[in-house]
Amino acid sequence: MASESNIIVRFAVKALFFVIFLPFTSNAFDVTVGIAPQKYIAEKIGGDLITVHSLMDRGVDPHSFSPKPSQAAELARSKIFFGIGFPYEKVLAANLKKTFKQLIIIDASAGLMDNAEDPHLWTSPKMLMKLAEATLEGLISVDPQNSAAYTANCAFFIQELSIWDDKFTTLFASGVNRSFLAYHPFLGYFARDYGLIQYSVEKEGKPPKSGDIAVILDTVKKEDITVFIAVKTHSIEPALFIAEQSGLKVALVDPLTDNLPNMLQEIYDAFSR
Asked: Are residues 263 and 194 part of one domain?
């Protein structure tokens, strides 16, 4: 199997073909983002002034992602690329700088991540506000003449996120058990921001062994855990087995959707049922 580095190098070479034959539109303001949740953020702030493309389709695992050469056309049209801290982005960014001289590359997660193994900042309304601010700064940097529109859109978006923040703050102030089980540990920042404790079934992205399951079941009992969350787009068969053994019901959340309100509602429902 080719390494991630080799895959992306081939992507950069093939991208040159697209650049040569791609018809450019001088007034187009295209933006490319790494994942679908960022598409939602950029569209909320950019509105009709931008067209947003996401490198990863819904359901694609960003932990093992490598871009398709055909996506070079979207990157070639774009003025800016927003990353969010996934490991593949480091190699990708280096090749993008060589291939697309006009492309501004911004890591929206810069200064926000405190766990390199968990880039899921966007699962927390508090972190979403910071990602929105980083996106706002990036859009203004390439299109300062529309800074007032971007700033106004961002303010409205942050107001929406503040409502979600208040909802979660109120929920967890009402005596809800602060310990929960997640099959894949994608709610680390959410847990940190609302004073929760996340227990993960997976270890380093690998399913549990029989000995691990015994520890998990013991933890569920000791911590009186009632909430068990799994990723909707992953195989849920292992999670269903844990649920059967523990007596818990699995709540499914899609953290890679381009509809962030739906994701936040799924998380809220998981803890409030």
From this structure: yes
